[in-house]
Amino acid sequence: PTVTLVAGKCGPLSGDFLITHAEVAHLAPPACDKRENQLLMGAYYEACTYTNDDVRGESCPGSAPTCDGLRSIARCVVKHNQDVAQGGACVTIKSDLTTLVGRRLGALAAVAAAECPPRTALVSWAPKTDPRPWYARKAEPGMYSFEAECCPALALDVCKTRKYGCTLKTKYSVGGIVATEYPHAECDPSKDEVMTSWQLTTEGCPAGFLQVATTCCETPQFYNLTTANAQKFEAQGLVASVLRGGSDGDLK
């Protein structure tokens, strides 16, 4: 399958332990192109140098001309099976509001940043600003939700949760992501995997640490849906359903 790297814009880091609006804005990877049948296969970050006002309204600390920055990268894989996938149109999933600005990276551990419903995979996810009236935002500042766009693809029955090591400290700001050896969160292209969820979690980590966890599901590059192949595909899906706890009636 064709894999494309999509780089986001460089955003300024505060140099502080507390998360800023600018850091939240650059937290998510850029969107894959659903018009080109792309799905998200991997997401990671890299350090960059931010030049003041490269992004409107974002400045370096103390109005310095340049400062350390962070850029998010998406690995998008083309899946032509989306042309024949059953299940309808893409859907948007939105999380509840949570306070991020003025807090530390551990605040994200309670947020499922992106999680798709069954039979769909991630195209993108991104933080969204608080849509409430100004007086509500003033009373509870710094709140964001996360919005994921998920599109249908074939199969997605065989899935694995992948965790990438407890290298991040809950006391970090977003800048801590590039200050440590942050691993690439990536599904396995050799197994035709795509990403159906992404989140930060403290599960499985010592106190004070967290890690990235993703769900990676297999979706074939393409099915020639003749009657025989369609029946085979349906049977494989039913068997997978039973193995996940479905009824014997499904198998029959």
| Percentage of residues assigned to helices | 10-25%
State the end-to-end CA separation: 35 Å
Counted beta strands: 14
- Overall pLDDT level: 82
Q: Could you say which overall geometry the principal axes of the C-alpha atoms support?
A: globular
Main beta sheet, described?
Answer: 5 strands, antiparallel
Q: Which quaternary structure do these chains form?
A: single chain
Structure overview:
The protein has 252 residues and is mostly beta strands. It has helices at 21-25, 134-139, 176-179, 227-243, 248-251, and strands spanning 3-7, 11-12, 38-51, 66-78, 91-94, 98-99, 114-115, 120-129, 143-152, 159-163, 168-169, 185-186, 193-201, 209-218. Strands 1, 2, 3, 4 and 12 form a five-stranded antiparallel β-sheet that branches. Strand 13 and strand 14 (209-218) form a beta hairpin. The longest helix has 17 residues, at 227-243. The model has no long low-confidence stretch (mean pLDDT 82).
